[in-house]
Amino acid sequence: MKLNLMVAFLFSITASAVFGQEIKYVDLATAERGEYTSYLGSDGAVYKVGDRVKIGVPSSNKTFAFITEGDGILLPITNLLASSSGTETEIKRIFVVGNKRSGYSVSFRTKGITGLSNYTIQFENALSTGEVKGFGLSSDHALAQLKKAKDKLDLGLITQEEYDKLKAELTKYIK
Predict the structure, then answer these.
(1) pTM for the complete prediction?
(2) Cys-Cys link to 34, which of 18, 114, 116, 132 (CB 3.0-4.6 A)?
(3) Rounded distance, CA 69 to CA 91, Å?
(4) Are 71 and 147 part of one and the same domain?
(5) pLDDT tens digit string along 152-166?
(6) Distances (CA, A) of 175 to 17, 43, 50, 142
(7) How many C-beta atoms surround the C-beta of residue 100 within 10 A?
(8) pLDDT-derived band at 12, boundaries 50, 70, 90
(9) Total domain count for the chain?
């Protein structure tokens, strides 16, 4: 009985260490493989299990390079077709894959449109190519918003305080 309680206690500590954490893009170099509950991406946005992400446009003509469909067991793994552009999919799992030699990356396992299949999204690659629309702002979009705010400041439509506040928010997205 005591042994069972000890094993259950150790398992709960281990499970919470791997499954109950947030992983950050900046920490991927020293990450541990495993499952996480949330991810702070390179775009500054937090993605959590249960959130919905929008599929963008494929980086090649007819298929997505960084989004696959199928699980390899019931359905073969294939690149997602362009017809899925514009749809939303719910994040079911967030996990880190890779090793020290090749590096680590974050992937999302999401619900497929039909419910029979699932998608696997190599998130940072998909985000950088526009295959997935992130929650955060792109560098270009943030810069455009900041320039627009500067024009409003110069025209006297907003105060210096309002401009400074907006600038502080937007600069974290500008690379």
Answers:
(1) 0.70
(2) 18
(3) 14
(4) no
(5) 999 999 999 999 999
(6) 33, 10, 29, 10
(7) 9
(8) very low
(9) 2
pLDDT digits (tens, 9 = 90+) for 33-92: 999 999 999 888 899 999 999 999 998 878 999 999 988 888 889 999 998 999 999 999
Q: Give the amino acid at 119.
A: Y
Average pLDDT over residues 24-31: 89
| Cβ neighbours around 20 below 10 Å, total | 11
Q: Residue 109: exposed, middle, or buried by beta-carbon count in 10 A (0-12, 13-18, 19+)?
A: middle
- Rounded to an integer, what is the distance from CA 29 to the centroid of its chain? 16
- Which domain does 93 fall in, by range? 18-133
Tell me, yes or no, whether 38 and 106 share the same domain.
yes
Q: 160 has which bridge partners?
A: none
